[in-house]
Amino acid sequence: MSISKEILVNITPQETRVAILENGMVHEIYIERSRSKGLVGNIYKGRVARVLPGMEAAFVEIGLERAAFLHVSDVAQARQNGNGGTQHISQVLREGQELLVQVIKDPLGTKGARLTTNITIPSRYLVFMPNSDNVGVSSRIDSEEERERLRNMLLSHDERVEDTGYIIRTAAEVATTESIASDVSYLNRVWDAVNFKAKDVTPGSVVHKDLPLCLRVLRDMVDEDLEKIRVDSRETYSIMKEFAQTYVPEVTDVIEHYPGERPIFDLHGVEDEIQKGLERKVLLKSGGHLILDQTEAMTTIDVNTGAFVGNRNLEETIFKTNLEAAQAIARQLRLRNLGGIVILDLIDMAEEEHKRQVMRALEKALEKDHARTQVCEVSTLGLVEMTRKRTRESLEHVLCTVCPTCEGRGTVKSAETVCYEIFREILREARQFDAKELLVLASQDVVDLLVDEESGSLAELEDFIAIPIKFQVEAMFTQEQYDVVIM
Length: 487
Fold this sequence. Notes:
Blueprint: E1 5-11, E2 15-22, E3 25-33, E4 43-52, E5 57-61, E6 68-71, H1 89-92, E7 98-105, E8 114-116, E9 121-122, E10 126-129, E11 135-137, H2 144-155, E12 165-168, H3 177-200, E13 205-208, H4 213-220, E14 226-231, H5 234-247, E15 255-257, H6 264-267, H7 270-276, E16 281-283, E17 289-294, E18 298-304, H8 314-336, E19 340-345, H9 352-366, E20 373-375, E21 383-388, H10 395-399, H11 415-432, E22 438-442, H12 444-451, H13 455-465, E23 469-473, E24 482-486
Parallel strand pairs: 1-14, 11-12, 14-15, 18-19, 22-23
Antiparallel strand pairs: 1-2, 2-3, 4-5, 4-7, 4-13, 5-6, 7-8, 9-10, 10-12, 16-17, 17-18, 19-21, 20-21, 22-24
Helix pairs in contact: 4-5, 8-9, 11-12
């Protein structure tokens, strides 16, 4: 089935938001805020702060709040030793050493940024690798003849290609020899500018920033399925149009300015999809549903039949639910930008053919994903293990913060539990201090429970300590918060 692809760009002074629609349905959301722009792709002049031989890694200061992490496998200078492994980190880096590094993963949670010295600079058709001398071709290009043609086209015209490395991107399938030559020239100019600036700046300084989101759209997200790019800012529309005329001329005519009064994301239902992308439960059309839980270690996705009872037998009902879930899971991974380890708990299927078809459906649905994925077969426990490359924060991490009440647990103590904690605290206070009266400050639900269902227990406690107890509702208190004040 052919795909109709549309890109919507929403601009405000505070943030840029991009939605990718396929056949009218939102599949990806990108958000870049002016106060907290992503760092992936930025090149810094860093200084090694600490070498950790036990971890084969180093911490590098690049001017951020936390030192960034550099593993020996990401150090270009780490040559292969005689045993087939790489050199130890202490053989290639020392404390105080200055070096050029590039961010490959944004800081996530409590972790600092992840770095590499294998610098890469992307253009429309190529990725430039100055510290390499290999020419690779995107794995999405299957034909060996096409791969060889593209290699020859790149190597045929520029003497500087021989000394450096390149990856030929999928978009190069439609590129001309002139456009490849233009990309090579552009990338060499960028690299020369990086080296020139790196000589003058102090460690901890940025020497090259990746393009802003509105221009990365044109560089990275354009393919043969694209029909329209709609931008709701006239100024950004002009910038994108000018950039496209220079670097991506084939998409110049599909960029449109959206002048409507109704917000562009409202018009296409994107705001609703963003809201749904933050919810734990995802409804399936059949009546089944997914439950998604993000943790520090992994993301788990549980598939349930829910209200779907099917028309034939149980096995057929399970099979149809899992097939629909495979499509929904692939979309949710992209929409929420979930990365790292993902565990799928499909409904147990008895027939091997059903398992095979569900796995093929999942793999096919993941083919359009820009992030690299790897999927394992259904395990004996009925679980599917997969990984999805993570470079930037998920939609939830971008838009949300840890709940101050439950502190990320996803649950809070019940009003009953807090009541009994208050009883114990009252006993402690009564034994420790000579109080004439005690005042309990708590949330509305806790106070209601104390003076209603627990009134009998409260009366017994008052008699036991021989001190009157009063209550006051604190509107600002969460359910877990309380205070026992001596009067």
